Amino acid sequence: MPLKQERRVSIPWMGKEYIELLGQSLSHLGINIQLPPRTTEKTVQLGVRNTAEMVCFPLKPTLGNFIEALDNGANTLLMYDSQGQCRLRQYFKIQEFTLRNMGYDFEMYNINYGNILPVLQKLSGASYARILLELFRYYGKVKRVDKKKERWSRRRPNIGIIGEIFTCCDERINYGIEKKIEKLGAKPVNMVTLSSFIKESFLRKMHWPTRDRKRYDRQAEKYFNGDLGGHGRENISHLLELVDNNIGGVIHLLPMSCMPETSIEPFVNTICRDSNTPLLRIPIDENTAEVNLETRLETFVELIKMRGEK
Length: 310
Ligand code: SF4
Hints:
Layout: E1 9-10, H1 16-28, H2 41-49, H3 59-71, E2 76-80, H4 88-101, E3 107-111, H5 116-124, H6 128-150, E4 158-163, H7 165-169, H8 177-183, E5 187-190, H9 194-203, H10 214-221, H11 232-244, E6 249-255, H12 259-263, H13 265-274, E7 279-284, H14 290-307
Parallel strand pairs: 1-2, 2-3, 4-5, 4-6, 6-7
Helix pairs in contact: 1-6, 2-3, 3-4, 10-11, 11-13
The chain binds iron/sulfur cluster.
């Protein structure tokens, strides 16, 4: 095992601001963080070449991030482990298996609600109290980033974004969709943010008091037979809140072959149809053409502008 000062720890990208802030927080704990190069076409292709064709898309760029991190000298990898129902629970296993088969020598740690403190303690040597304090500081910073993302406009048509979290959060994966919507004169209202994810995945489980969306959550539960995994249930809850507040239109972003998001498609379609809310679904994978996405987006925003806000 490498000495602490020799460790070079890397994490995959999921939104530039989120991961840079996370890197800073882990550095404050004394962890030697080495972020991978930002995701590019080359990163995605590295992942595509080394994974199954039909696996859900986020596995490909995150594997590519790890390959580039290891090539740049990282020797310890951290990967989130949802412990949930969909493939995200298996990502770190598949990534570790693939990277070892490719000949890389490294240590890998999965991070989940149950082990985050011991893993970060092992990597940093910091006390649990210090780690918790740093994690709450990080959450506060992320909440400030997300406030802007979730804000509604009074002057421009608002367009809600729901979908799979990686696709909704990473601007290199969704081709900067929020900026594109803004350029077209509308306000993106991104409901799938890292702070909402932290709230769902960590704080609720720790019985930390969080602002409740009980009414929409209860309504959403009627669509499901228990937990679906990913953010399927949360997205229906977000959608119900958006249409209840007369959102101008909704974009459903999802990676190709995402189990939870494809499962909720009929519910999303029906809720939007019944509330007369325009819906644009954008599946994303390595074959998505940015120009095609832009054309669909332009037409969609124009349609919403023409309708006026409901
Ligand atoms: S949420 Fe969808 S894309 Fe993400 S790991 Fe689960 S199945 Fe794959």
